[in-house]
TrEMBL record:
It comes from Larkinella bovis. This is Purine nucleoside phosphorylase. It holds the Pfam family Cu-oxidase_4. Keywords: Hydrolase, Metal-binding, Transferase, Zinc. The keyword Lipid metabolism does not apply. The keyword Transferase applies. It catalyses: S-methyl-5'-thioadenosine + phosphate = 5-(methylsulfanyl)-alpha-D-ribose 1-phosphate + adenine; inosine + phosphate = alpha-D-ribose 1-phosphate + hypoxanthine; adenosine + H2O + H(+) = inosine + NH4(+); adenosine + phosphate = alpha-D-ribose 1-phosphate + adenine. PANTHER family: PURINE NUCLEOSIDE PHOSPHORYLASE LACC1, UNCHARACTERIZED PROTEIN YFIH. InterPro entries: Cu_polyphenol_OxRdtase, Cu_polyphenol_OxRdtase_sf, Cytotoxic_necrot_fac-like_cat. It comes from the Bacteria.
Length: 257
């Protein structure tokens, strides 16, 4: 993963594609005061709207993106997927897909897992929001299938990034949640009588099950909890915190870097 300024980090799995824009925002470089310090880009937070607007402007500007070309959705921890033909704000979708150049897809996170997909063959992209419910619903696999149906995507041509989220050692759950995960993605701590879930391995496994080669899957080395100085964590900050954006899109030939 490489870093540009302090506003965002870019996944190295995509670094050989100059026309592709992919990034995760951090919590640095914004104007929001505590407890949203400082680059809170979450629209549905208790931060002042003018702070969020300025933070989003800074983030998009740092990537040389026109905010009018951005698509987002109010996420509901489900498995609905929207094929984006025009940018804008939508409601009720946890995955966005498009094959339109200069349309940039975003998901909002603060512990849940963002997954970014790039189909290098058909020039299509996806941005996925996968909390534990979306992971259990196998939204990642469903998104790959949706791209196959919509764009003719071949999984072998895809590159994917499992983004920064809550880490396994911090994601403590009860048996009612743990029972919905396979043994490979959960651990029982006998001392604490609690289960711990690994959302990164669970979603990476879904990417592999969908047919994406393992060497084309990148996983963030960062944690919203262990690296809370750089990322927002809803859980560790007791719900009073900001949000990050994960973004992906393809620049048209005239605007490629």
């Amino acid at each position: 993963m490489t870093e540009s300024l302090s506003l965002y980090r870019t996944p190295t799995v995509f670094e050989s594609f100059p026309a592709l824009v992919a990034a995760e925002s951090t919590r640095h470089g914004g104007v929001s005061p505590f407890p949203f310090t400082s680059l809170n880009v979450g629209i549905n937070t208790d931060d002042l709207p003018e702070h969020v607007e300025e933070n989003r402007r800074r983030f998009f500007s740092s990537l040389r993106i026109d905010p009018a070309r951005v698509a987002s959705s109010y996420q509901v921890h489900g498995d609905r997927i929207l094929t984006v033909t025009n940018p804008g704000r939508f409601d009720g979708f946890d995955a966005l897909i498009t094959n339109r150049p200069d349309q940039f897809l975003t998901v909002t996170v603060a512990d849940c897992t963002p997954i970014l997909l790039y189909d290098s063959g058909q020039q299509a992209v996806a941005a996925i929001h996968a909390g534990w419910r979306g992971t259990v619903a196998r939204i990642v696999e469903k998104t790959v299938r949706a791209m196959q149906a919509e764009f003719g995507t071949r999984p072998a041509d895809c590159f994917a990034y499992v983004g920064t989220c809550i880490d396994e050692c911090s994601f403590e759950v009860g048996p009612e949640v743990a029972d919905q995960f396979g043994d490979a993605d959960k651990r029982f701590d006998a001392g604490r009588q609690k289960y711990f879930i690994n959302l990164k391995t669970a979603n990476a496994a879904q990417l592999a099950a969908a047919g994406i080669p393992g060497h084309q899957i990148g996983v963030s080395p960062y944690s919203t909890v262990l690296h809370n100085q750089d990322y927002f964590s809803y859980r560790i900050e007791n719900g009073k915190t900001g949000r990050m954006l994960a973004l992906i899109g393809i620049r048209s030939p005239g605007t490629a870097r």
